[in-house]
C-alpha cells in the first residue's frame, strides 16, 4: 500500500461524497426535477459507496481494493449522468468533476 | 437496558430503514415527483438515522438513548410528510406506518 | 431481479450486520482479547459491507450485484476468522453462521 | 445557517472520522490491547456519529442541529478516553485532538 495514493483516494472519496450529497439536495430543489430523477438516484448510491470506501481506507482494511473497484463504478455511473446536466446546473458540473477525480483515484488502488 | 425493548427497537429501525429506502426510490419513479420532493428528502435522513441507531443498539452502545431521541424526531418528520401522500401512494402509506412504529419504539428507549 | 432472492439477501445482510456488531462488542469484553484482534477487525468491515449492501438492495440499486460480490468476500473473511473461535465463544459461532448464510445469499445475486 | 460554520463543522467531522477509524485500527495492533478496549469501543461510535453528522450537514438537512448535539457527546466521550492514552500512543493523542476540535465545531451549530 502506497500511503500517498491511499491519502489521495480518501480525499477524493470525501470530496465526492460532499459533492453527491449536495447535488442530490440541489436536484430536489430544481424546477426541472423531472429531468433529475436519475441524478438523485445515482448521487445516493455514489455517496454511500464513497463513504464506505473512505472508511475502509482510513482503517487500513484489506477489503479496500474491492471497495475501490465498486466505488469507481459508482462514480463513473454518477459522472455520466451528471455530465448531461452540467451545462444547466452548476452542482451537477461540480459533482461530475468530483466523481471523475474519485473514479481515477480509486482505479489507482485497484490494480 | 431491557433486552426485549432493545430488540423491538432494532427491528423497528430496520423495518423503517427498508421502508424509507424503498419509498425514496418509488417516489423517484412517480409521475407527480414534483409533489414528492419533501418525501424523498426526509426518507433519506430517516433511513440514515435508522441505520445509525440500529447499529448502536446492536453493539450495546452507551450512546443509544441519544440516538433513539434523534431517530424518533427523524421518524416523526418523515411520517408527517408521508402521511400527506398515503392516500395516493402505497409506498408512502407503508413508510408512514413504519416511521410511526419506529418513533414509538425509539421513544421507549429515551425515557 | 428475483424479488424473493432479493428479500432473502436483505434479511441475511441484516442478520449478519447484527451478529457482527454484537460479536465485535462481545470480543471487546473477552478476557482473551489478545486472540480476538482479527475478529474485531473483520467484524467491523463485514458489518459495514452488510449495511451498505442491504441498503442498495432495499432501494433497488443497479449497483447491487457488485455490492453483493464485495459483501460475500467480507462475509467469507469474517466467517473464517470467527470459526477459529466458535468452540470458545458463542458470539463467534453465531457470527460465523450468519456470515456463511449471508455469503451464500449474496453469491446467489452475483451470478 | 452560517455557511462558514457549516463547512468548518463538516471538515472537523471528517478529520475526526479519519482519526477515529485510524485509532481503532492502531489500538487493535497495540501490545497493550487490554488497556485499549474502551478506546476501540468509543472510536467506533464516534466514527459513526461523525460520518452521519457530516452527511446531514453536506445535504443541508434540517436534522443537523440534533445530529451535532449527539456528535458532540460522542466526541467528548471518545476524547476523554483517548486522552488517558495520549502519552503512550500517538494515534490516541491525535484522535483526542480531532475529537475535541469536532466537539467544539458541533457545539457551535447546536445553539
TrEMBL record, chains A, B, C, D:
InterPro entries: Csp_YhjQ. Pfam families: Csp (PF03860). Gene3D superfamilies: 1.20.1270.360. This is Four-helix bundle copper-binding protein. It comes from Deinococcus koreensis.
Amino acid at each position: 500500500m502506497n500511503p500517498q495514493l491511499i491519502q489521495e483516494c480518501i480525499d477524493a472519496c470525501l470530496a465526492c461524497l460532499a459533492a453527491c450529497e449536495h447535488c442530490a439536495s440541489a436536484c430536489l430543489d430544481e424546477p426541472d426535477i423531472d429531468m433529475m430523477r436519475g441524478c438523485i438516484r445515482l448521487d445516493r448510491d455514489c455517496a454511500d459507496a464513497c463513504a464506505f470506501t473512505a472508511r475502509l481506507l482510513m482503517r487500513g482494511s484489506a477489503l479496500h481494493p474491492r471497495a475501490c473497484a465498486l466505488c469507481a463504478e459508482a462514480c463513473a455511473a454518477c459522472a455520466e449522468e451528471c455530465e448531461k446536466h452540467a451545462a444547466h446546473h452548476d452542482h451537477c458540473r461540480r459533482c461530475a468533476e468530483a466523481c471523475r477525480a474519485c473514479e481515477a483515484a480509486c482505479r489507482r488502488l485497484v490494480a
